[in-house]
Specification:
Helices cover 41% and strands 23% of the residues. By secondary structure, the chain is of the alpha/beta class. Strand 11, helix 15 and strand 12 form a beta-alpha-beta unit. Helix 7 crosses helix 8. The two termini are 39 Å apart.
Protein backbone atom coordinates (compact mmCIF):
# COMPACT_ATOMS: atom_id res chain seq x y z
CA UNK A 1 0.00 0.00 0.00
CA UNK A 2 1.30 3.46 -0.95
CA UNK A 3 2.13 5.58 2.08
CA UNK A 4 1.29 9.28 2.30
CA UNK A 5 5.00 10.09 2.20
CA UNK A 6 5.41 8.19 -1.10
CA UNK A 7 2.36 9.72 -2.77
CA UNK A 8 2.89 11.83 -5.87
CA UNK A 9 2.27 15.46 -4.98
CA UNK A 10 3.15 17.23 -8.22
CA UNK A 11 3.00 15.71 -11.69
CA UNK A 12 3.68 17.10 -15.15
CA UNK A 13 2.49 15.26 -18.23
CA UNK A 14 3.90 16.12 -21.63
CA UNK A 15 4.68 19.78 -20.95
CA UNK A 16 5.60 21.93 -23.95
CA UNK A 17 6.36 25.62 -23.96
CA UNK A 18 6.88 27.30 -27.32
CA UNK A 19 7.46 31.02 -27.71
CA UNK A 20 6.10 32.42 -30.97
CA UNK A 21 2.94 32.67 -33.04
CA UNK A 22 3.31 29.36 -34.90
CA UNK A 23 3.47 27.14 -31.84
CA UNK A 24 1.41 24.28 -33.31
CA UNK A 25 3.72 24.03 -36.31
CA UNK A 26 6.77 24.25 -34.04
CA UNK A 27 5.51 21.39 -31.85
CA UNK A 28 4.78 19.25 -34.89
CA UNK A 29 8.25 19.83 -36.35
CA UNK A 30 9.87 19.14 -32.99
CA UNK A 31 7.91 15.90 -32.59
CA UNK A 32 9.17 14.86 -36.03
CA UNK A 33 12.75 15.25 -34.85
CA UNK A 34 13.66 18.81 -35.83
CA UNK A 35 16.23 20.49 -33.59
CA UNK A 36 15.60 23.72 -31.72
CA UNK A 37 17.62 25.59 -34.34
CA UNK A 38 15.70 24.01 -37.23
CA UNK A 39 12.36 24.84 -35.61
CA UNK A 40 13.47 28.44 -35.08
CA UNK A 41 14.57 28.79 -38.71
CA UNK A 42 11.34 27.27 -40.07
CA UNK A 43 8.79 28.97 -37.80
CA UNK A 44 10.47 31.80 -35.92
CA UNK A 45 9.46 30.01 -32.69
CA UNK A 46 11.68 28.99 -29.77
CA UNK A 47 11.02 25.65 -28.11
CA UNK A 48 11.64 26.33 -24.43
CA UNK A 49 10.37 23.03 -22.99
CA UNK A 50 9.84 19.90 -25.07
CA UNK A 51 7.43 17.18 -23.93
CA UNK A 52 8.65 16.98 -20.31
CA UNK A 53 6.95 14.60 -17.88
CA UNK A 54 7.89 14.24 -14.22
CA UNK A 55 6.45 13.24 -10.86
CA UNK A 56 7.54 14.63 -7.48
CA UNK A 57 6.62 12.78 -4.30
CA UNK A 58 5.47 14.50 -1.15
CA UNK A 59 8.39 15.78 0.93
CA UNK A 60 10.91 15.31 -1.88
CA UNK A 61 13.44 17.88 -3.04
CA UNK A 62 13.51 17.55 -6.83
CA UNK A 63 16.30 19.55 -8.46
CA UNK A 64 16.24 20.59 -12.12
CA UNK A 65 19.77 21.36 -13.19
CA UNK A 66 20.99 22.79 -16.48
CA UNK A 67 22.98 25.53 -18.14
CA UNK A 68 21.56 28.85 -19.30
CA UNK A 69 19.01 28.30 -22.06
CA UNK A 70 18.32 24.67 -21.12
CA UNK A 71 14.67 25.43 -20.30
CA UNK A 72 14.78 24.87 -16.55
CA UNK A 73 13.35 28.25 -15.49
CA UNK A 74 10.69 28.07 -18.20
CA UNK A 75 9.70 24.64 -16.90
CA UNK A 76 9.32 25.76 -13.29
CA UNK A 77 7.16 28.69 -14.39
CA UNK A 78 4.92 26.27 -16.25
CA UNK A 79 4.72 24.00 -13.20
CA UNK A 80 3.71 26.96 -11.01
CA UNK A 81 1.36 28.24 -13.73
CA UNK A 82 3.13 31.58 -13.83
CA UNK A 83 3.38 30.77 -17.54
CA UNK A 84 0.75 28.81 -19.43
CA UNK A 85 2.24 25.76 -21.14
CA UNK A 86 1.67 25.43 -24.87
CA UNK A 87 0.58 21.82 -24.35
CA UNK A 88 0.44 19.29 -21.54
CA UNK A 89 -0.96 19.23 -18.03
CA UNK A 90 0.22 19.90 -14.47
CA UNK A 91 -1.45 18.15 -11.54
CA UNK A 92 -1.26 19.11 -7.86
CA UNK A 93 -2.68 16.42 -5.59
CA UNK A 94 -4.61 15.10 -8.59
CA UNK A 95 -6.11 18.48 -9.53
CA UNK A 96 -5.33 19.77 -13.02
CA UNK A 97 -3.79 23.23 -12.60
CA UNK A 98 -3.79 23.80 -16.35
CA UNK A 99 -7.58 23.41 -16.48
CA UNK A 100 -8.29 25.92 -13.69
CA UNK A 101 -9.71 29.36 -14.32
CA UNK A 102 -7.98 32.42 -12.91
CA UNK A 103 -10.08 32.52 -9.73
CA UNK A 104 -9.41 28.89 -8.83
CA UNK A 105 -5.73 29.21 -9.73
CA UNK A 106 -5.39 32.33 -7.60
CA UNK A 107 -6.76 30.42 -4.61
CA UNK A 108 -4.31 27.58 -5.13
CA UNK A 109 -1.39 29.99 -5.39
CA UNK A 110 -2.37 31.72 -2.18
CA UNK A 111 -2.73 28.55 -0.14
CA UNK A 112 -0.64 25.77 -1.66
CA UNK A 113 2.20 27.24 -3.75
CA UNK A 114 5.09 29.57 -2.98
CA UNK A 115 8.00 30.68 -5.09
CA UNK A 116 11.43 32.07 -4.25
CA UNK A 117 13.29 33.85 -7.03
CA UNK A 118 16.91 34.79 -7.62
CA UNK A 119 15.95 38.44 -7.27
CA UNK A 120 14.41 38.91 -3.88
CA UNK A 121 11.32 40.88 -4.99
CA UNK A 122 10.82 42.47 -1.57
CA UNK A 123 8.76 45.60 -1.08
CA UNK A 124 11.32 48.27 -0.10
CA UNK A 125 8.72 50.41 1.73
CA UNK A 126 7.54 47.51 3.92
CA UNK A 127 9.25 46.20 7.02
CA UNK A 128 10.71 42.72 7.16
CA UNK A 129 7.73 41.33 9.05
CA UNK A 130 5.25 42.92 6.65
CA UNK A 131 7.16 41.48 3.70
CA UNK A 132 7.16 38.05 5.32
CA UNK A 133 3.46 38.28 6.16
CA UNK A 134 2.39 39.57 2.73
CA UNK A 135 0.86 36.27 1.58
CA UNK A 136 -1.28 36.11 4.70
CA UNK A 137 -2.32 39.72 4.22
CA UNK A 138 -3.57 38.80 0.73
CA UNK A 139 -5.57 36.03 2.40
CA UNK A 140 -7.09 38.76 4.61
CA UNK A 141 -5.76 37.30 7.86
CA UNK A 142 -5.90 39.69 10.80
CA UNK A 143 -2.70 41.69 11.32
CA UNK A 144 -1.93 40.36 14.79
CA UNK A 145 -2.28 36.74 13.67
CA UNK A 146 -0.25 37.11 10.48
CA UNK A 147 2.51 38.97 12.35
CA UNK A 148 2.63 36.21 14.94
CA UNK A 149 3.04 33.55 12.29
CA UNK A 150 5.54 35.59 10.26
CA UNK A 151 7.58 36.33 13.38
CA UNK A 152 7.89 32.60 14.13
CA UNK A 153 9.07 31.86 10.59
CA UNK A 154 11.55 34.75 10.64
CA UNK A 155 13.05 33.22 13.76
CA UNK A 156 13.36 29.88 11.97
CA UNK A 157 15.38 31.47 9.14
CA UNK A 158 17.66 33.35 11.53
CA UNK A 159 16.10 36.84 11.38
CA UNK A 160 14.77 37.21 14.89
CA UNK A 161 15.22 40.82 15.95
CA UNK A 162 15.07 42.19 12.40
CA UNK A 163 11.28 42.26 12.11
CA UNK A 164 11.04 46.07 11.97
CA UNK A 165 14.00 46.70 9.69
CA UNK A 166 13.54 47.54 6.02
CA UNK A 167 15.04 45.48 3.16
CA UNK A 168 17.53 48.23 2.32
CA UNK A 169 19.03 47.83 5.79
CA UNK A 170 19.84 44.14 5.21
CA UNK A 171 22.58 42.28 3.38
CA UNK A 172 21.81 40.26 0.27
CA UNK A 173 21.80 37.01 2.20
CA UNK A 174 19.45 38.43 4.81
CA UNK A 175 17.12 39.73 2.12
CA UNK A 176 16.97 36.26 0.60
CA UNK A 177 16.09 34.89 4.03
CA UNK A 178 13.16 37.32 4.08
CA UNK A 179 12.10 35.97 0.68
CA UNK A 180 12.32 32.43 2.06
CA UNK A 181 10.33 33.43 5.14
CA UNK A 182 7.64 34.99 2.94
CA UNK A 183 7.34 31.73 1.01
CA UNK A 184 7.16 29.62 4.17
CA UNK A 185 4.75 31.83 6.12
CA UNK A 186 1.74 30.78 4.03
CA UNK A 187 2.53 27.13 4.90
CA UNK A 188 2.58 25.94 1.27
CA UNK A 189 2.45 22.37 0.06
CA UNK A 190 5.04 23.06 -2.64
CA UNK A 191 7.96 25.46 -2.76
CA UNK A 192 9.44 26.46 -6.11
CA UNK A 193 12.98 27.88 -6.07
CA UNK A 194 14.31 29.48 -9.26
CA UNK A 195 18.09 29.81 -8.75
CA UNK A 196 17.50 31.61 -5.44
CA UNK A 197 21.12 31.62 -4.25
CA UNK A 198 23.03 32.20 -7.49
CA UNK A 199 23.47 35.96 -6.93
CA UNK A 200 24.92 35.50 -3.44
CA UNK A 201 28.56 35.38 -2.43
CA UNK A 202 29.93 31.80 -2.09
CA UNK A 203 30.01 31.75 1.72
CA UNK A 204 26.53 33.23 2.04
CA UNK A 205 25.29 30.84 -0.62
CA UNK A 206 26.61 27.85 1.31
CA UNK A 207 25.01 29.19 4.47
CA UNK A 208 21.65 29.52 2.69
CA UNK A 209 21.93 25.97 1.35
CA UNK A 210 22.57 24.69 4.87
CA UNK A 211 19.64 26.76 6.13
CA UNK A 212 17.34 25.20 3.53
CA UNK A 213 18.52 21.69 4.39
CA UNK A 214 17.84 22.32 8.08
CA UNK A 215 14.38 23.70 7.32
CA UNK A 216 13.56 20.80 5.03
CA UNK A 217 14.62 18.31 7.69
CA UNK A 218 12.13 19.94 10.06
CA UNK A 219 9.28 20.93 7.73
CA UNK A 220 9.44 18.21 5.03
CA UNK A 221 7.98 20.36 2.27
CA UNK A 222 7.81 19.32 -1.37
CA UNK A 223 10.44 21.36 -3.22
CA UNK A 224 11.26 21.92 -6.88
CA UNK A 225 14.65 23.65 -7.00
CA UNK A 226 16.23 25.14 -10.13
CA UNK A 227 20.00 25.60 -10.38
CA UNK A 228 22.85 25.69 -12.89
CA UNK A 229 25.33 24.48 -10.24
CA UNK A 230 25.80 20.70 -10.08
CA UNK A 231 27.46 20.88 -6.66
CA UNK A 232 24.37 22.67 -5.34
CA UNK A 233 22.13 20.09 -7.00
CA UNK A 234 24.02 17.24 -5.32
CA UNK A 235 23.90 18.91 -1.94
CA UNK A 236 20.19 19.70 -1.95
CA UNK A 237 18.46 17.17 -4.19
CA UNK A 238 16.88 13.84 -3.36
CA UNK A 239 16.67 13.41 -7.13
CA UNK A 240 18.21 15.48 -9.91
CA UNK A 241 17.00 16.05 -13.46
CA UNK A 242 19.70 17.25 -15.85
CA UNK A 243 18.09 19.36 -18.57
CA UNK A 244 19.38 20.22 -22.02
CA UNK A 245 17.63 21.86 -24.98
CA UNK A 246 14.25 21.72 -23.28
CA UNK A 247 14.31 18.02 -22.33
CA UNK A 248 15.56 15.87 -19.45
CA UNK A 249 18.76 14.02 -20.38
CA UNK A 250 18.65 11.94 -17.19
CA UNK A 251 16.80 11.83 -13.87
CA UNK A 252 18.19 10.08 -10.82
CA UNK A 253 19.92 10.35 -7.48
CA UNK A 254 23.35 11.95 -7.33
CA UNK A 255 25.00 8.53 -7.04
CA UNK A 256 23.05 7.20 -10.06
CA UNK A 257 24.12 10.15 -12.19
CA UNK A 258 27.74 9.76 -11.11
CA UNK A 259 28.05 5.98 -11.46
CA UNK A 260 25.78 5.51 -14.50
CA UNK A 261 25.66 8.68 -16.63
CA UNK A 262 23.20 8.09 -19.48
CA UNK A 263 24.73 10.58 -21.95
CA UNK A 264 28.01 12.31 -22.65
CA UNK A 265 26.37 15.57 -21.51
CA UNK A 266 25.62 14.09 -18.07
CA UNK A 267 29.10 12.58 -17.92
CA UNK A 268 30.64 16.01 -18.47
CA UNK A 269 28.79 17.37 -15.44
CA UNK A 270 29.78 14.50 -13.18
CA UNK A 271 33.40 13.85 -14.16
CA UNK A 272 34.89 16.45 -11.77
CA UNK A 273 32.65 15.62 -8.82
CA UNK A 274 34.59 14.43 -5.73
CA UNK A 275 32.99 10.99 -5.77
CA UNK A 276 34.23 9.87 -2.36
CA UNK A 277 32.30 12.79 -0.84
CA UNK A 278 29.05 11.92 -2.66
CA UNK A 279 28.87 8.13 -2.92
CA UNK A 280 27.79 6.31 0.22
CA UNK A 281 28.30 2.91 1.80
CA UNK A 282 24.87 1.99 0.46
CA UNK A 283 26.01 2.81 -3.07
CA UNK A 284 29.15 0.65 -2.99
CA UNK A 285 28.14 -2.22 -0.70
CA UNK A 286 27.80 -5.85 -1.69
CA UNK A 287 24.58 -7.50 -0.55
CA UNK A 288 25.24 -9.72 2.44
CA UNK A 289 23.41 -10.13 5.74
CA UNK A 290 26.38 -11.09 7.93
CA UNK A 291 29.57 -9.20 8.64
CA UNK A 292 32.26 -8.66 11.22
CA UNK A 293 32.06 -6.48 14.29
CA UNK A 294 32.53 -3.18 12.50
CA UNK A 295 29.48 -1.46 11.03
CA UNK A 296 28.52 1.86 9.44
CA UNK A 297 25.16 3.30 8.36
CA UNK A 298 24.26 3.07 4.66
CA UNK A 299 24.33 6.87 4.48
CA UNK A 300 28.03 7.11 5.48
CA UNK A 301 30.15 8.60 2.71
CA UNK A 302 32.91 6.59 1.08
CA UNK A 303 35.34 9.26 2.29
CA UNK A 304 34.43 8.45 5.90
CA UNK A 305 34.99 4.74 5.24
CA UNK A 306 38.58 5.07 4.06
CA UNK A 307 40.21 5.22 7.53
CA UNK A 308 38.19 2.18 8.62
CA UNK A 309 39.20 0.21 5.53
CA UNK A 310 42.86 0.95 6.24
CA UNK A 311 42.57 -0.28 9.83
CA UNK A 312 41.83 -3.91 8.96
CA UNK A 313 41.25 -6.39 6.15
CA UNK A 314 37.83 -7.66 7.23
CA UNK A 315 34.75 -6.20 5.50
CA UNK A 316 32.71 -3.47 7.17
CA UNK A 317 29.03 -4.13 7.73
CA UNK A 318 26.46 -1.68 6.32
CA UNK A 319 23.25 -1.15 8.29
CA UNK A 320 19.92 0.38 7.34
CA UNK A 321 17.92 2.95 9.33
CA UNK A 322 16.63 0.19 11.63
CA UNK A 323 20.12 -1.10 12.40
CA UNK A 324 19.81 -4.24 10.29
CA UNK A 325 22.84 -5.39 8.31
CA UNK A 326 22.04 -5.07 4.60
CA UNK A 327 25.49 -5.47 3.06
CA UNK A 328 29.24 -5.19 3.41
CA UNK A 329 31.96 -2.93 2.06
CA UNK A 330 35.58 -3.91 1.52
CA UNK A 331 38.60 -2.29 -0.10
CA UNK A 332 37.99 -4.02 -3.42
CA UNK A 333 34.40 -2.78 -3.66
CA UNK A 334 35.45 0.82 -3.04
CA UNK A 335 38.34 0.59 -5.52
CA UNK A 336 36.10 -0.85 -8.24
CA UNK A 337 33.28 1.65 -7.89
CA UNK A 338 35.62 4.64 -7.83
CA UNK A 339 37.47 3.35 -10.89
CA UNK A 340 34.22 2.77 -12.82
CA UNK A 341 32.91 6.22 -11.87
CA UNK A 342 35.82 8.08 -13.47
Amino acid sequence: MESAADKTCLEARGIWKVFGSKSDQAVELSRDGASRKEVLEATGCTVGVKDVSMAVTRGETFVVMGLSGSGKSTLVRCLARLTDPTAGSVFLDGEDLTAMDEAALRQVRRQKLSMVFQHFGLFPHRTVIDNAAYGLEIQKMAKAERHERASAVLAEVGLEGYEHHYPGQLSGGMQQRVGLARALTVDPEILFFDEPFSALDPLIRRDMQDQLLDLQHTLQRTIVFITHDFAEAIKLGDRIAIMKDGVFDQVGTASQLITSPATDYVREFTEDVPKIKVLTAGDVMQTQTTSGTRSVPASATVESLLPLLLEGDDPIGVSDADGRTVGVVDRNAVTQILASAR
